Amino acid sequence: MAADIIARDLLAQEAQGLLARLNTITPFALHETMVPAAALAPPAVTGIEQFLADGRAELRAEVQGYLRWLAGPGRAASPAEIQRRFVLIRLRFNDVLSQYDLFLEVVTQRSEHGTGVWLSGLDVVAADALDLGVPYYASPPAVCYLARGPGAAIRRAHTRLPGGGRSPVAIIRVPRERLVGHGIASSLVHEVGHQGAALLDLVPSLRPVLQRMQRQAPSALRPAWRAWQRWISEIVADYWSVGKLGVSSTLGLLAVVSLPRVFVFRLSAADPHPIPWIRVLLSAAMGEALYPHPQWQVLTRTWQQLYPLETVEPRWADRLDLLAGSIPDFLEVLLGHRPAALRGRSLAEVMPTGERQPDQLLEVFERSGGQPEPMMRDSPTLAFAAIGQARAAGRIPPGREARLVGDLLTRWALASTLDIAAICAGSPPRPLPARSRLQIPIQT
Fold it and tell me: What is this structure's pTM?
């Protein structure tokens, strides 16, 4: 048999094999098991399933078109051309599998006992963190999953996925080791801040302002403004977290960046994050600007005692001191920034400063008695802010905090599920009274 015929038959079988494997990929709704309270929100499920289904349909059409070409014009093509076309299709097949696996990791964890429900609760927290109270943008669905390591990350909604296409949801990776405690909110809301900043075009609107400040600054201060410009993406996300969570955000950040001294003081030109030593000082300064209280100075002094600048080589210490000294001027620019998307309001004005001052947060916590039922009347980020403030004030020990946070995550997941069920039944969701919630058996 001629070599070109063998090549054509071989690749036709390979293409049919791709179709057979493609047909084994089924929607998550048909093979993932999870309790209803752990399920993704309907907009997230619909977006993910539709995105993946469209990818499979496009690939199936490409494979079938290739087989028709092989049986027609491809009969006169060279083996090299037949192979070239098949390789492109196989690469597309691997892209479809990669996209499927990306969402599979998110969905599969929802079947883990306990963890799945907590993740659903974190989805509720993420949605609340993205809400500024005014519809400046259409909030995309956000889904959370756990990963090893200390750092969180986000794949923002509408960004390009490997192999093409735009993600229908924001995918937030949270560190497993921080799952229960106020620190999880700090990491989560920081990542939500990246999504919020993208929806408001904050970074593109801030960069020209910072460039102008750099040009106008005395030569000695220009390196500081250049650094703020380089770090602005991560700084905006930190600001979002502080604005929503107060001291809970800074305490969570402090825990993440409490590293060996060489890392805390290290500058990397490739790292978009501020130097950890500066980052904690900046977070505390943000908190003091939004929520004035002596606690921020206490936190600042504590951090400086944990990592004294005197231990750093003098020339590098001078540079860090310059950066620290420029924080007030930088924050004046950041908090007063009025991007077009906020319709005349500044970044400081869109944060809930009227209800999250430290004393107010302690009142929220004390009023609840440290129990989850009363806290269900508050928004999730307000509840986390109150818990973090109570932790900072020594009002709640870590063990009790962990139980409270786990219970709240479970109840938020359940309440969200019941709300969705009510909407599907044709009736508006109504908040359950605290007493009714107590009658629902919950294991945490």
Answer: 0.88
